[in-house]
Structure formats: structure tokens, C-alpha cells
Write a structure and sequence with these properties.
By secondary structure, the chain is α/β, with parallel strands linked by helices. It is built from 12 helices and 17 strands. The strands form 5 sheets. Strands 7-6-5-8-12 form a 5-stranded mixed β-sheet. A 5-stranded mixed β-sheet has the order 15-14-13-16-17, sandwiched between helices. It has a 3-stranded antiparallel β-sheet with strand order 9-10-11, with no helix packed on it. Helix 6 packs across helix 12 and helix 8 packs antiparallel against helix 10. The radius of gyration is 23 Å and the shape is globular. The N terminus is likely disordered.
Length: 419
Amino acid sequence: MNRDESSTGVRTPTRARPTAARQHTLREYNLALVSQALFDAPRPRSRADIAAATGLTRATVSVLVDQLIEARLVRELPPVTPLRAGRPAVPLTPAERTIVGLGLEVNVDYLGGTVLDLTGQVVAQEVVPGDLHGSDPAEVLGRLGALARRLVEDVEAQDMQAAGARLALPGLVDARAGRLQVAPNLGWSSFLPLPLLGLPDRLPVEIANEANLAGLAQLVAGAQGRRPDDAAPPVPSSFLYVSGEVGIGSAIVIDRELFLGNRGWSGEIGHVVVDPHGPRCLCGATGCLEQYAGKDAMLRAAGIPMDAPVETFLDALAEGTPSAREAATSAGTALGRALANFVNLVDIETVLLGGIYTDLLPYLREALTTELTTRVLASPWTELDLRPALVAGHAAMIGGARTVLRDVVAAPSAWTTSD
């Protein structure tokens, strides 16, 4: 890309002025190279493996690995006896329960926070359910800030250090200015959320769209978050992630990077028009996808109280309740039309369905497939890969915490003590 983009927004284009490479700059570059080679590997690597992968000398790698170990980013596993004569290899792996990232989220049905360590494991989590339609942002974010402080104090008491936090919000986010432009389903608009959290200055915090962070959560780096016996197929490098809740958001991932658009506002698939003569949406337009395939819309169509959990809808579907089956068919048809438009425009092969869609996919698939087969021009020659998201529950919090830790891995020199 020709502009400097972060995972949470689009930054102003810059042109770097050529400068001479100083020794500390070269060390930082090599340290980051070694760090990423370790964290991106599907299995533990030795110092010799890292030297072979990076092209650095074994002596240089050894010094840099020692710095990462001292910084508590990496730890050594027991030596492995080689099959041939030679010194035992010492595998290296991300350090657990040392440096952690915090993912925070406000959504229509809950607020919460999740703490991940460098291995991708959840070390602390707190989720508070509640109806946040039309809520007061100062009150809600004040509660979330108190929750975040509790989580940070808890992990710090266990000798972990929080590297930062990401706040996920369901709406248009201007990450450069730290401003939420609009979150229709919350009834929030045009303010700066981060000061309302009241978090200490020592904890760097950024905001991002919740679907974008949930999409990034699907990109599991190396072996993080995956079990050796995990039968789930690997996530491809390019995909569309679609998350169904009360609102519907999406993230466009191309070659493992978010496509953010000009202002970082891409992916608002919930406001794609299904029928211009349809019901009015909270965004002010009529016939948006959310009014057909959002959680409230499906519960309403099924005759289920909108304050009921989605499990009530799933139970009705499993029992074959006609109104529930009709609601799922209508939602699948609307979602299929929106996805067909996207596939025709972007030519992507994989769609990951997250949020409530992960469990609903068996009941949506027939209507989805019918619409995609009918409306995608290339359908006679290729089949769209529809699959449940790898990370479904509270994916935006997981993605937010992983984004914090990805920054640590990409710039580990900030955590080392060497000059």
C-alpha cells in the first residue's frame, strides 16, 4: 500500500526522508526480524532455525534471542536431542503470562474486556450483559473503564505487564482523531470516547471498529490459539468476515491486512440496501440488511421477544418451529443478496460468518447458497467458501488484544534494555 496504515485506522500519508542507518536502528530492525520469525512460526524454532529463516548469523541471532528472553517476550523449551550427531536444539516459544494485551468492547448487548498473553491464551476476562440501546456514553464508558482497571490490576498482581488496549465500538470510527462518528444501534455520535474511560496515561489505548477487530481475530499468527489436534481448516490470507448481532458488521481482509478504505470506514455491510421500500433503519435509511438479518429482526420475525437470548431462537429452529424457520430463510435470503453484491464487486472466495451467524449457519446456508448461486456471475465456475468464523465469541475483544500484542512483536526493542 502507498499509505501508512495501522490495524485500527488510516494514518496521514507520509514520505520518509532518507537517513543513514545508525547502529541502534539496525539492531532494532534485526530484533524485530527475529521476533516476527519466532512468533509467526507454526511450531517452536531454534536459534539455528531463526538464523536460516532470517539470513542473520547464528551469533547475531543468539544475542538478539537472549534480549527477547530477558525482555520476557520469549522463553526456552527443554532441549531436543538431534537425530544426528550434534548439539541439542533449544526450541523457542512465546512467553506465557508476561506481556499482555487488553481488548475492550461496547456493543448493544454487553460491555467487557479480555486480556491475552503472547501465546494467545485468555488470562482474564469480564463481560457484563445489558441493553445499551440509547445509553449514556459517559456512564457506559465510565463503567468499562472501571472494568478495565480491575483487569489490569488483576494481571499486574500476577507479575504480568499490560502493553496497551484497543476499544472496539460498533460504528464509524475515526482512529486518527480518536473519535466515534456514529454508532446507530447505540444511539451514540460525534464524541471522543477514550477520555471517558479514565484509564491511566501509562496504558496506551486506541479505538477501532468492532467488526474490523473481530476480523483480525481470525488471523491466528503461527500456533497462537490453535491446538495441535484442531481440525478446523486454516483461514486463508484473504476473506470477508461478517458478524451478526443486533447490527451487522464486516471486515475485508486482503493478504492478512485490513482493507480500510479512504477513511477507515469500509465494511458497513449492515447498511447495504436490500429493499429501498423496506423498514426504516436506525441509521435513518430504509431497507438496510440489519432490518432483515440482524438479531432483533430475526427474533421479531420469529415471534420471539427481542430481549430473549439467541439460544431461544436456535432452540425454536432445532424444533422446526415454522415461524423460526421462516425468519431464518428470510434472513438468509437477505444476507445472501448482500454477499452476492460484495462477491461480484471484489471477487473474494471465502466468507467467514461470526457472531450469532456462527451457530445459525446450518439454518441460513440453504437460502444463502440459493442467492449466491443465482446472483454471483462467476458461480458456474467457482463456489464461494462459506464457513463459521474460527473465533466467534467476543471476537472483537480477542482481536483488540491480539492487535496490541502484534505491535509488541513488531517493535520489541521498546521492551528490551539494550542500547
